[in-house]
Each structure stands twice: as structure tokens, then as C-alpha cells.
Amino acid sequence: MYFFRETKLQAITNLRSSLAYVKGIGLHRSDNVFSTIGFGKSTRVYHMNYYYYTIMSFLAKSRYMTGTGLIRSRQNNLRIFDDIKSVKASMHNMGLPAHGQRTRDNHRTKRRLRSKLV
Asked: 103: helix, coil or strand?
């Protein structure tokens, strides 16, 4: 049984999907890590030994920000936006889309956000 960044890698699943459960690493990044090592997409976690585990963890830690460090940096970025009183921070605090999406004509989004705000 292997753990990576507070996430247990499920032994019966393939490596690609088990590493994708780690915060900050999705399927694309896990594919990049395992193609660098030389594993295929169907390789299971129980095929991996300690040597390949150390290589995988080194590659993932050196290339990508994951886990609590990622959460902390996102919170710090939002705090910076809030300190400079940007529109992005105020939209994020109200629970509205912050990347320019429409809320006037997109009624599905409006209904969803109305239920959150009320």
C-alpha cells in the first residue's frame, strides 16, 4: 500500500487513475509522470515496487505543486486579490463566476447561484 501526499493509492486500480486523486495532479499530469518512467496506462499499483515509487514521487513533487502547498498558495492568491480590492475577489466572495462568464442570460447558472446565495 502506497501513500502520496496524504492520499492512499488504491492497489486494484491502475496507476494513472490512482495518482489522479491527488490534489493538484489530474489525469494528464499523471500520464506525463508515468510516461516519463515508462509505465503504460494499464499498469496497476501492485506492479510498482519501492524503486519506481521513489522515482514517481520525486517526479511529481519536483514538477507539480500538490496537496496542502497548493491549497495554501490558492488561499494566499485570493487574499492578495482581496487586499487590492479587485473585482475577481469580490465575485469569488459572492460565489459568482470570476472569469467573465455571463450570469444575465445563462439561467441555469443564475438558478444554481441563486440557491447558493439564498
From this structure: coil
